[in-house]
Amino acid sequence: MNTRAQRAARLQPEFAIDGLPYAFRTATMEEAQAFENQVLEKLNAGKTVRSFLIAAVELLAEALNVLVVQVFRKDDYAVKYAVEPLLSGAGPLGELSVRLKLMYGLGVIARHEYEDAELLMALREELNHDGAEYRFVDDEILGPFGELHCVSALPPQPALLPPGEADEALLAMQQQRYQQMVRSTMVLSVTALIAGIGAKQPSRLSPLGARNGVRASRRVTGRAFCYNAANPP
Fold it and tell me: Which SUPFAM superfamilies does the UniProt record give (predicted)?
């Protein structure tokens, strides 16, 4: 190998997928894990149903915003002058519900993710018009949360003795433990939903990004290994 070829080899990444160096994709995976940790931390900080739902919808909006930008052109000019105006308050994609429908319509998110996101948004909107403070174990909350696809199963309610037949301290402890179990289930389930949406790769899933197969290559024992992202083996 001549000097020029050696210099070029040092600049060429050993393995690239979708035109991106492997190191870049590793960083992207790390960012996805960091986002999941952020979602978990913020949802867990919501000690009331209201604060939990507010945080959930805000994080959902953040994840959808990232997806929308990825679906469209990614150069700085397009993002600044074409994509951002679409996402502004007065733009056609200014409303979260519209962005959600767009991502579902393009096939970026699955139906169960779309339905769960819609239900969370509807719950938050309902609480905006309801001044009552609900507990995580109230029927008004357990009912809708039981319909979420991301919730595999809510903890069963413990069999409590009638107030007159049980020690009040023990009864309060059982109720508190049950509420903590329900809240933890909700936090973990919604974290999985939002983190899953945030980890999507629209370039592979949407018809806009998958229109043309992107090829990646690496050298393996002197031969080129090719991978077609649109038609994986």
Answer: MtlR-like
Rounded-to-integer distance, Cα 50 and Cα 57, Å = 11
Q: What is the mean pLDDT of the chain?
A: 76
Which amino acid would we find at residue 214?
V
Local structure of 214: helix, strand or coil: coil
CA distance linking residue 1 with residue 19, whole number of Å: 25
Domain 20-213: assigned CATH number: 1.20.120.330
Residue 51 confidence class, pLDDT cut points 50, 70, 90: very high
CA angle 204, 122, 52 (to 5 degrees): 85
Top pLDDT among 131 and 111 is at 111
Q: What is the dihedral of CA 74, 224, 222, 220, to 10 degrees?
A: 70
- The domain segmentation of the chain, as residue ranges, is 20-213
Who contacts 77 (Cβ-Cβ below 8 Å, separation ≥6)? Answer: none
* pLDDT for 206: 45
Amino acid at 67: L
Give the three-state DSSP class for 212.
coil
d(CA 149, CA 146): 8
Give the rounded distance of the alpha carbon of 171 from its chain centre.
37
CB 106 within 8 A of CB 206: yes
